[in-house]
Amino acid sequence: MHETFNRLREKHRSEEGFTLIELLVVVVIIGILVAIAVPVYLNYRQGAADKSSQSDVRGAISAVEQYYTDNGNTYPASAQTASPGASITLAAQSGGTAQTITVSAGTTLKLVVSGSNYAICAINSGGAPKYWVYTNRTGGSVSASTQAAYTSCTP
Fold first, then answer.
1. Which tens digits make up the pLDDT trace of 31-60?
2. Residue 66: which domain range?
3. How many domains in the chain?
4. Is the separation of the CB atoms in 54 and 121 below 8 Å?
């Protein structure tokens, strides 16, 4: 019987594995890494959505200016996406060419025309509440703006 206990002790000493403390340390380290990685990932997604709506405004500028050139130097009528991500088709004048403004998923875009001036405003629902506005009157680049400027979207 004494010999059986000795064999069991020897077998127990030769078994290797992780202690409970080592496993807890690994779990804590993984938890810390996840706590750091998730907010960073969400910021990347919001930034990508914001850049997407900003890019849509730039694309709309090109479409509106192409429309102006192809349709006897007149701007199209004001338009807005029917739903986020829906494209806008600018109907052609007689003898002119229609243009389509392609809009990214989640982006709501507005085109407001007043005489020889126009404004293009956009926001993406997946991004931070960042509004993008461009007016041909002031020219320049697409700029981040306030909700009030987006709502009025004045050329």
1. 999 999 888 887 888 888 889 999 999 999
2. 18-152
3. 1
4. no
